[in-house]
Design a protein that fits this description.
The chain is an alpha+beta fold. The chain contains 12 helices and 18 strands. It has helices at residues 8-18, 105-116, 172-182, 219-232, 246-267, 277-292, 302-310, 353-356, 363-378, 392-414, 427-448, 454-465, and strands spanning 32-45, 53-63, 66-77, 88-93, 96-100, 120-121, 124-128, 140-142, 150-154, 158-162, 165-166, 191-199, 202-211, 217-218, 269-272, 319-322, 333-335, 340-342. It has a 7-stranded antiparallel β-sheet. Strands 1, 2, 3, 4, 5 and 11 form a 6-stranded antiparallel β-sheet that branches. The radius of gyration is 23 Å and the shape is globular. It starts with 7 loop residues before the first helix and ends with a helix. 41% of the residues are buried.
Length: 466
């Protein structure tokens, strides 16, 4: 029988050039020094009968002095169909082609079936949630949108998320969905199953199976359509635009507040005493230091940013913290026929897992959404970001759009008055968290979308100095 181990050297040689071209690969700016196979198992094998084989492979990618682990689904075929040519990795031997099996509907269906059957394969546990019934007759298709993981949809019922960059520990996406499911949260995609195992003597989450919302729009698409109409109809007042987003922004704020309440019910709270706020500020400054070393354009704003951070330590009361979404923005919410749903509870992918699972102020999620409204407002100006090149009336109009929807979101979030933190009563903390998020965005854009880096830089100029 053909084994991956026999072709490991050929595969890793191919991956050095293939990985940086994948949308989910994390560090496109650094040169790959080495690729090694950490773990390899076969999940399905029909190769001897002329069919495909599915190997589950974890690789270690050495780059920039660190090693990151990535999950690959490696398909092997003697005769690669034309429909899979775009997923080709390369030939591991004459007549045997390796490819990204996440695009092979035959093989992704096999993974779904393993979850439905509660199977164990080579130490990997495929489990459906208690009471979940999974239809195994639905055809699959991959989702092509840009994202840090790979998702596969089955019919109009399920979506399977396969994590690409792996952390040693239970994924917060799985942990929080299970917690929210236990208290009947209405603003999440119901969890149906998971793929889990161990990696280097630690638990690891390989994937999730959840409810798929077929008739929905994501918040980013709705918000940016509103901004586009705003720019294309310069004479129409914002309040009279047919695509005015503020009512939905208010409803979204209510949904986020409801999820925060559900997380408190499921997982409780902690208190950060006043004398520990200095350490919170130190963490913000440390993250700023790390980005300053890499992105010179941030340097002019450093003194003003640190002054905003310092005001957090002057907060006169303890801060109540809880588990939160951790990376909340308009691309992480869906408007379904019945209301808003929050998705992807992984936290900021660039932060280490211990930070992503730590309890934090819910205002960090609020700050993330406020930053996202600013992104939605300004993204159409990318490539035209120099102040002298921007039509002042357009800039003024998109800023007005952002301010209007930020205010509507906060109104909705505070509407029921039962969340742990009132955004309007904690302006110093909220602004510091917004700036902390914007500093993170500078690093993210520098690594992944360099042409967008001026969006958070312009926001920092306003947040730090206004």
């Amino acid at each position: 029988m053909t084994t991956l181990v026999a072709h490991a050297e050929a595969l890793t040689g191919l991956l050095s050039s293939w990985l940086p071209k994948q949308r989910w690969f994390g560090d496109k700016q650094s040169h790959i020094d080495d690729v090694s196979v950490v773990k390899a198992d076969t999940w399905f094998d029909d190769l001897t009968a002329g069919g495909p084989r599915l190997d589950h492979v974890v690789v270690g990618v050495a780059s920039g002095g660190r090693v990151e682990r990535y999950q690959l689904l490696v398909g092997l075929r003697r005769d690669l169909p034309e429909r899979l040519d775009h997923a080709r990795i390369g030939d591991v031997e004459p007549g045997l082609t390796a490819y990204d099996a996440a695009h092979d509907l035959d093989l992704t269906g096999e993974i779904r079936d393993l979850i439905a059957a509660n199977k164990d394969v080579s130490g990997v546990r495929f489990r459906h949630e208690p009471g979940a019934e999974i239809d195994t007759d639905l055809a699959s298709r991959p989702i092509s949108a840009e994202q840090s993981n790979t998702s596969v949809v089955f019919g109009d019922e399920y979506i399977m998320k396969l994590f690409r960059k792996l952390d040693r520990g239970v994924s917060p996406d799985l942990e929080l969905h299970r917690a929210l499911r236990s208290v009947g949260s209405e603003h999440i995609a119901e969890l149906y199953g998971a793929i889990e195992g161990e990696l280097q003597d630690a638990p690891v989450t390989y994937g999730l199976l959840q409810r798929f919302f077929a008739n929905c729009a994501d918040g980013w698409a709705m918000a940016t359509a509103s901004v586009r109409d705003l720019i294309n109809e310069p004479e129409t007042p914002i309040t009279e635009l047919g695509s005015d987003f503020s009512t939905e922004a208010c409803r979204l704020g209510q949904a986020v507040a409801a999820v925060h309440r559900d997380l408190v019910t499921a997982l409780g709270t902690e208190v950060v005493p006043v004398d520990r706020l200095d350490s919170v500020v130190a963490g913000m400054n440390a993250r700023l230091d790390a980005v300053l070393r890499r992105v010179g354009g941030l340097a002019p704003f450093e003194p003003a940013i640190r002054r905003v951070f310092a005001r957090v330590a002057d907060h006169g009361e303890p801060v109540i913290v809880q588990r939160i979404h951790g990376d909340l923005h308009l691309g992480q919410v869906l408007r379904t026929l019945t209301g808003w749903v929050l998705i992807d509870f992984e936290g900021e992918p660039a932060r280490p897992l211990p930070e992503r699972v730590a309890m934090m102020s819910p205002l960090r999620d609020v700050a993330g959404m406020l930053r996202s409204f600013d992104y939605a407002a300004h993204h159409l100006l990318v490539g035209n970001v120099e102040a002298e090149e921007i039509d002042p009336s357009v800039d003024e109009r998109v800023v007005e759009w952002a301010d209007r929807n930020r205010a509507a979101f906060i109104e909705g979030y505070s509407k029921d008055g039962v969340t742990l933190a009132d955004p309007e009563a904690n302006p110093a903390l909220l602004r510091a968290l917004e700036l902390d998020k914007a500093v993170y965005e500078v690093a993210y854009e520098y690594d992944n979308r360099p042409s967008w880096v001026d969006i958070p830089l312009r926001s920092i100029a306003r947040l730090a100095t206004s």
